[in-house]
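Hypothesis: this fold can be encoded by more than one sequence.
Test: take the structure tokens below, design a sequence, compare later.
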């Protein structure tokens, strides 16, 4: 049935106010409101004033409703909005260290527009969707965070696995945690792992700081330049317990004795020199040397 003159006038007025017939037909609650408006000979102004009572109006936020109006009333402007989001997404991909193809670009730009997302909301969705956090060599902002976490992890005894680091990077990128939160979690994990020095760790020292004198002694006495915290002697010093539950080595002197009990000590020039000096003293004590 062709629209009546009154309906034509109503529809023309509604369209002038931004509500195209395609939008009205797309939603049952808008269609019902339009039917009532025609039946009761409402003005276009009364129709639009009644929109807040519809399920359509309640379901969508202002930005979402605006996108739907543009899509049906002004497709060219609607496309301009999508195109502007596409440029924003490209910039974000470079800055954040993400990879996105053309199809994903178009789809996400439309999702932002139709979903009425703010830039902050879009950033979180983008960061959680288009970055491969399992990559061991991330780039952009994700790479910077990953590098920082790898440094923190090394400083605190390599207590985190790659999966934990990846998860922290993702949480940081999506705004779930900040750098201070992550460092606090790493510090607490280190304090639990290296409980002999938990107070010092929680007061700001790193495991590397604490391990330094032990590493130096092992490296010097065993003549091994690339000693790490994971060396059995160093780990014993950091985590070992005595019979009473205290630190296994109460002093560096005790730790030196432990080093000299290690089989590796026997193969060093230090050991041979020490044994030679001991032999010389014995010979001297017995009068065999002047």
């Amino acid at each position: 049935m062709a629209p009546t003159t009154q309906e034509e006038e109503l529809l023309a007025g509604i369209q002038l106010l931004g509500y195209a017939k395609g939008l009205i037909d797309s939603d049952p609650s808008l269609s019902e409101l339009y039917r009532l408006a025609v039946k009761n000979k409402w003005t276009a102004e009364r129709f639009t004033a009644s929109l807040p009572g519809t399920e359509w109006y309640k379901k969508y936020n202002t930005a979402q409703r605006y996108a739907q109006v543009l899509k049906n009333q002004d497709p060219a402007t609607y496309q301009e909005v999508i195109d502007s989001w596409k440029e924003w997404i490209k910039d974000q991909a470079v800055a954040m260290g993400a990879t996105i193809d053309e199809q994903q670009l178009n789809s996400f730009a439309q999702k932002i527009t139709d979903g009425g997302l703010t830039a902050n909301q879009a950033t979180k969705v983008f960061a959680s969707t288009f970055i491969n956090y399992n990559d061991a060599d991330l780039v952009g902002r994700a790479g910077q965070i990953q590098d920082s976490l790898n440094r923190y992890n090394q400083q605190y005894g390599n207590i985190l696995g790659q999966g934990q680091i990846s998860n922290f990077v993702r949480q940081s990128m999506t705004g779930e945690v900040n750098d201070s939160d992550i460092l606090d979690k790493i510090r607490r994990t280190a304090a639990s792992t290296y409980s002999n020095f938990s107070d010092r760790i929680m007061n700001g020292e790193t495991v590397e700081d604490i391990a330094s004198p032990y590493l130096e002694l092992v490296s010097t006495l065993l003549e091994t330049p690339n000693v790490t915290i994971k060396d059995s002697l160093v780990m014993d010093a950091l985590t070992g317990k005595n019979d009473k539950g205290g630190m296994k080595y109460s002093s560096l002197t005790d730790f030196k004795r432990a080093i000299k009990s290690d089989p590796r000590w026997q193969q060093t020039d230090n050991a041979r020199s020490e044994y030679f000096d001991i032999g010389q003293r014995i010979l001297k004590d017995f009068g065999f040397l002047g």
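The mean pLDDT is 87. The chain has four domains: 5-59, 75-129, 140-193, 208-284.
Hypothesis status: open.
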